[in-house]
């Protein structure tokens, strides 16, 4: 549901070969830099002026969660704390039969380098591991999310979450949304939210906790209908998938729906093609924020700040690595590789070094918002391995006006 890719990617979506220019441009953190490869064509986002930029609210939240004084927050202090959390995560993972077998005979990691030697967890492991990945009794599982496989065969992936897991996500949403929301704002949510503990429901709860007025709207048949509903609410902010937001923008620009004037929107659940963000800005005049996350990370993962220079990460709950898609070795900041996540605080089901298949680079600190921490750069597509080669399948662009 909250994969960061619009749809199961296919070669028809377009393929680009990774190259040093891609890696170098990741350091710039801009959007549209893959245009020369025919992949992500779009105008670079205008750089916000200094007075527009506020430090990410995730920094004080992280400092509190990690017991680090805010003025001591740095990549080094976060890394040091994460080593402790990773050791605890490995210990907890060993409660699950899958990891007891997978890690048998391996010592607990003492350093990040040790941790980076542990075996990966793959999507196939999730499909085939089933209940063996669960480390709590069934009655401690509050929510099961089933993700269908893109092929016609094979078991689906099943992610399990406890009440405490869900609470951490609501907490992240409550803080992360203050990046773009103010108390009292009406916030329209177009994400699925009718079922308890669905992503829309968790976002609704997070927004209420932070003093906003969320409005959950059921899925509409067209962009024009979404746009009309958005205008009716008079919302200051809306949350949508890039596909939904693009359809709203197209409908407004085509004169099929009334234009509303929200102040900001958050695009989530799919990777955002740069031209989609441009189109939404052109149609609605709002500031566009991007979110990265997936069901495997408990939905939330990272959110842009007002500098729009990468995703500030939920580093108290997840550890993010960028690895070479073939060798699995670590890649330096700025170099595009596969995003690998470890769920540091997960209770029902720990994922150690889970290969997400997302292609992205880590952006070197500091951020222009004043945060000293690293951020995850834009997701460029999906990693595809074949033989001794790899490339990136770029984002699907299916748009329904
Ligand atoms: Zn920032």
UniProtKB/TrEMBL annotation:
Residues 147-342 form the AMP-dependent synthetase/ligase domain. Pfam families: AMP-binding. Gene3D superfamilies: N-terminal domain of ligase-like. It comes from the Bacteria. InterPro entries: AMP-dep_synth/lig_dom, ANL_N_sf. This is AMP-binding protein. The lineage of its organism: Bacteria, Pseudomonadati, Thermodesulfobacteriota, Desulfovibrionia, Desulfovibrionales.
């Amino acid at each position: 549901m909250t994969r960061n890719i619009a749809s199961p990617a296919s070669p028809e979506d377009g393929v680009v070969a990774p190259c040093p220019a891609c890696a170098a441009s990741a350091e710039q953190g801009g959007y549209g830099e893959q245009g020369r490869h025919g992949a992500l064509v779009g105008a670079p986002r205008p750089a916000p002026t200094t007075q527009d930029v506020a430090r990410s609210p995730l920094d004080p939240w992280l400092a509190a969660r990690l017991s680090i004084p805010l003025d001591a927050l740095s990549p080094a202090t976060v890394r040091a704390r994460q080593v402790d959390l990773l050791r605890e995560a490995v210990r907890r993972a060993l409660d699950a039969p899958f990891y007891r077998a997978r890690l048998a005979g391996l010592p607990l990691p003492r350093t990040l380098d040790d941790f980076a030697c542990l075996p990966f967890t793959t999507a196939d492991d999730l499909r085939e591991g089933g209940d063996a990945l669960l480390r709590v009794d069934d009655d401690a599982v509050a929510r099961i999310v089933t993700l269908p496989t893109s092929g016609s065969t094979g078991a689906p992936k099943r992610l399990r979450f406890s009440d405490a897991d869900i609470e951490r996500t609501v907490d992240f949403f409550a803080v992360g949304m203050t990046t773009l929301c103010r108390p009292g704002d009406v916030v329209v949510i177009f994400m699925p939210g009718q079922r308890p503990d669905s992503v829309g429901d968790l976002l609704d709860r997070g927004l209420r906790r932070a003093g906003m007025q969320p409005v959950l709207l059921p899925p509409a048949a067209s962009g024009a209908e979404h746009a009309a509903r958005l205008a009716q609410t008079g919302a200051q902010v809306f949350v949508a998938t890039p596909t939904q937001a693009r359809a709203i923008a197209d409908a407004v620009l085509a004169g099929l729906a009334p234009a509303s004037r929200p102040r900001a929107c958050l695009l989530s659940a799919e990777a955002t093609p740069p031209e989609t963000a441009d189109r939404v800005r052109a149609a609605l005049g709002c500031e566009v924020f991007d979110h990265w996350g997936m069901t495997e990370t408990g939905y939330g993962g990272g959110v842009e700040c007002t500098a729009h220079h990468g995703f500030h990460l939920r580093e108290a709950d997840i550890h993010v690595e960028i690895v070479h898609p073939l060798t699995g070795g670590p890649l330096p900041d700025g170099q595009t590789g596969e995003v690998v996540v470890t769920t540091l605080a997960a209770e029902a089901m720990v994922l150690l070094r889970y290969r997400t298949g997302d292609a992205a680079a880590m952006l070197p600190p500091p951020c222009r918002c004043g945060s000293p921490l690293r951020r995850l750069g834009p997701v460029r597509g999906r990693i595809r391995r074949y033989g001794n080669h790899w490339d990136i399948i770029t984002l699907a662009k299916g748009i329904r006006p």
